[in-house]
């Protein structure tokens, strides 16, 4: 098992693992959340899926190369990353936001 080097930011190895992919997708969505909800009126679920699939393709391309037989799996893995990322938001971020709102009252 590789040890994570805390002196590095993102690496292809980290992005290539499930936890790394979910973390990066969640961070990107949080960064874009205001624009998607208020300005562009795009449902967040679809944006999360598109970002997940794009990142999966890019990571696969730069690490192993995209083989034709892996393309269906990349789309299915995009669903897994999407659902997990949205679950992370609902389970962690949303609860923190609700806690902050309740403290302000």
Work out the count of structural domains: 1
**What can be said about the biggest beta sheet?**
none
Structural class: mainly alpha
Would you identify the regions where 5 or more consecutive residues have pLDDT less than 50? none
Overall average residue pLDDT: 87
Shape: globular
Number of helices: 4
Strand content: under 5%
Q: Any idea what the radius of gyration is?
A: 16 Å
Number of strands: 0
Q: First CA to last CA: what distance?
A: 47 Å
Task: Give an account of the 3D structure.
- Helices cover 77% and strands 0% of the residues.
- The chain has 105 residues and is mostly helical.
- The protein has helices at 12-16, 18-39, 44-63, 71-104.
- The chain contains 4 helices and no strands.
- The longest helix has 34 residues, at 71-104.
- The protein has one domain (12-104).
- Helix 2 (18-39) packs across helix 4 (71-104).
List the topology elements.
Layout: H1 12-16, H2 18-39, H3 44-63, H4 71-104
Helix pairs in contact: 2-3, 2-4, 3-4
Summarize this entry quickly.
The chain has helices spanning 12-16, 18-39, 44-63, 71-104.
Key features of this structure:
105 residues, single chain, mainly alpha, 4 helices, 77% helix
């Amino acid at each position: 098992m590789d040890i994570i080097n805390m002196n590095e930011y993102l690496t292809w190895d980290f992005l290539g693992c499930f936890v790394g992919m979910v973390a990066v997708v969640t961070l990107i969505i949080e960064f874009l959340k205001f624009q998607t909800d208020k300005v562009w009126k795009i449902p967040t679920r679809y944006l999360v899926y598109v970002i997940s699939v794009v990142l999966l393709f890019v990571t696969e391309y730069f690490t192993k190369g995209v083989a034709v037989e892996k393309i269906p799996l990349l789309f299915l893995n995009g669903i897994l990353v999407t659902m997990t990322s949205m679950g992370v938001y609902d389970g962690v971020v949303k609860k923190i936001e609700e806690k902050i709102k309740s403290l302000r009252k």
